[in-house]
Amino acid sequence: MTDILTEANTATHTDTDTGTGTGTEQATAAASGAAATERFRSRERADGPAADTGRVNTLVSELLAAAHDIIRRHQLTYAEYDALKAWLIRVGEDGEWPLFLDVWLEHVVEEVAHEDRQGSKGTIEGPYYVPGAPSLPADATLPMRDGEQGTPLTFQGQVTDVAGKPLAGASVEIWQADSDGYYSQFAPGLPEWNLRGGITADEEGRFRIGTVEPAPYRIPTDGSCGRLIEAAGWHAWRPAHLHLKVSAPGHRLITTQLYFRGGEHVGDDIASAVKPELVLDPVPADGGEGRTVTYDFVLDGE
Ligand code: MBD
Ligand code: FE
């Protein structure tokens, strides 16, 4: 079967495409997919209600009816049906279900889940969060390699409630890609907790985190999501971003991401996860190297 969506893709996400790289091993879609699938299976969601099995009939019936409608309107052929089947099988083999779902569906789930919030905006979590990162004090530097590449960034701010009351001891968890666009635990050659940390804010809810600016993230080109992107003629990029989970007892946890004004793909994120409120404006650091930015978080009450 000639397969428009599953033929081997010769382009790989290698060190040479992205700069200095993570070492001799190459990052592959299947390896990062397998890690993301494992991570998803062992995760527990700390926020939101449990799933309601009473909705399965309605939701799945409507999803299938939408698919039937597309098949009729576009006169789907057997060759296309077979390509779809082969591709769906490959997504599972590559472990890319977490990536596929988080890139193309999660943004709408997040929009629905959080439309009633008054406080800071959230956005999608994506496939690369790992709980249990090293605990850090309110003024700290994220774990990183000696000579970690990338523009140094000081990310600081305060966590308050919707009335502006500081939330003492709030938790600010951060995870991000490095300056080559790789996440620790999902690409080879990186220290386990590189650029991941759990900060406890001070008595006034303030924090100051030393890190480096991440690079934009490219969906692996050698897996099934990459094949889909190529066949559809889309681009494979997410803008550079910091991921955060901000929480305090008695308040709703926010999962969010922050982007950099003027950065590549801030205007056309493949994961549709940019909101205007989430774009940072860093300024050159006072008398130091790199840049500084202040961003405050407002948490809704429970
Ligand atoms: C990412 O880094 C990410 O944040 C999302 C949502 C999807 C793929 C890669
Ligand atoms: Fe990300």
From TrEMBL:
<dbReference type="GO" id="GO:0018576">
    <property type="term" value="F:catechol 1,2-dioxygenase activity"/>
</dbReference>
<dbReference type="InterPro" id="IPR050770">
    <property type="entry name" value="Intradiol_RC_Dioxygenase"/>
</dbReference>
<dbReference type="InterPro" id="IPR012800">
    <property type="entry name" value="Cchol_dOase_actb"/>
</dbReference>
<keyword id="KW-0408">Iron</keyword>
<comment type="similarity">
    <text>Belongs to the intradiol ring-cleavage dioxygenase family.</text>
</comment>
<dbReference type="InterPro" id="IPR043029">
    <property type="entry name" value="1_2-CTD_multi_dom"/>
</dbReference>
<protein>
    <submittedName>
        <fullName>Catechol 1,2-dioxygenase</fullName>
        <ecNumber>1.13.11.1</ecNumber>
    </submittedName>
</protein>
<dbReference type="Pfam" id="PF04444">
    <property type="entry name" value="Dioxygenase_N"/>
</dbReference>
<feature type="domain" description="Intradiol ring-cleavage dioxygenases">
    <location>
        <begin position="155"/>
        <end position="183"/>
    </location>
</feature>
<keyword id="KW-0560">Oxidoreductase</keyword>
<feature type="compositionally biased region" description="Low complexity">
    <location>
        <begin position="1"/>
        <end position="37"/>
    </location>
</feature>
<keyword id="KW-0223">Dioxygenase</keyword>
<dbReference type="Pfam" id="PF00775">
    <property type="entry name" value="Dioxygenase_C"/>
</dbReference>
<dbReference type="GO" id="GO:0009712">
    <property type="term" value="P:catechol-containing compound metabolic process"/>
</dbReference>
<feature type="region of interest" description="Disordered">
    <location>
        <begin position="1"/>
        <end position="53"/>
    </location>
</feature>
<dbReference type="InterPro" id="IPR000627">
    <property type="entry name" value="Intradiol_dOase_C"/>
</dbReference>
<feature type="compositionally biased region" description="Basic and acidic residues">
    <location>
        <begin position="38"/>
        <end position="47"/>
    </location>
</feature>
<dbReference type="InterPro" id="IPR007535">
    <property type="entry name" value="Catechol_dOase_N"/>
</dbReference>
<dbReference type="GO" id="GO:0008199">
    <property type="term" value="F:ferric iron binding"/>
</dbReference>
<keyword id="KW-0479">Metal-binding</keyword>
<dbReference type="InterPro" id="IPR015889">
    <property type="entry name" value="Intradiol_dOase_core"/>
</dbReference>
